[in-house]
Amino acid sequence: MLVIQLPLGLINIAGHATLSKELHWLFSVFAGLIMCRIVYQLTGTISPLFFNGYIKLDDKKKLEWNNRGFSTFHALLVAAASLYLLIESDLFRDGAPDDLMINRTSAFSDTILGISTGYFLADLAMIFYYFPALGGMEYVLHHGLSMFAIVQSLLSGQAQIYIFMVLFTESTTPFVNLRWYLDVAGQKNSKLYVSNGVALFFGWLVARIVLFLFFFYHMFAHFDQIKKVYPLGFYSLLTVPPVLALLNIVWFWKIAKGMIKTLRKARHSQ
């Protein structure tokens, strides 16, 4: 049985982890890795059918093109799952008579967290291997902190509601990737590029700015439960989300400047 016990009693999951759960976690992580591999290959196979210029791209561009394929797939998967678990499901509903909200998990939520862990492992491995072709240190920081928080929540069974709030912010990733695809395809002057830029701006505002404000409000309103989280998880909840929020603000500023520039260019070209 998996037992993780750090110094000073930071975390001890011996009471939560069982052999069946450990196998489930490992299978889910492996499924996430396989998912990335399959979608990466599939993206490279079907892209020439929709974009003739794909075969003319250099190896670096093809690498990033395919990488963004499984990035988009993961984003759609976890955003849909997060929306279901947070809104449609009763798993984290306030006032439920069973366990504290902070301690609630399900086989489905564990599966999604495992798959997401597999994705971040695969993407981080590619970022490091081809560094800095697929992103700089800000991507390493973002992925590293995200995986650190997800793995903690998966192994401990605590604070999953907050992990899914953050995972829902991945709903903006398809817009980011589409902007890159259109740029590479030479479509920066197209109406689709302009529309996608506006959608990205408002999507980022809602999913990565406003949602984080609600995230912090929710933590404040349920701080009596937050204090019951194991020490490492408690301090992670107090430190990791603010860092991710700061990264989102920095990226939002860049997105806003890019949208204004694109709109001005589009208006002058009319």
UniProtKB/TrEMBL annotation:
CC per GO annotation: endoplasmic reticulum; membrane
One BP term from GO: lipid homeostasis
InterPro entries: TLC-dom, TLCD
Topology term for the membrane: Multi-pass membrane protein
Subcellular location: Membrane
Residue ranges occupied by any TLC domain in the UniProt entry: 60-264
Stored PANTHER family: CT120 PROTEIN, TOPOISOMERASE I DAMAGE AFFECTED PROTEIN 4
Name of the protein this chain belongs to: Transmembrane protein 56-B
Organism: Nicotiana sylvestris
Lineage start: Eukaryota, Viridiplantae, Streptophyta, Embryophyta, Tracheophyta
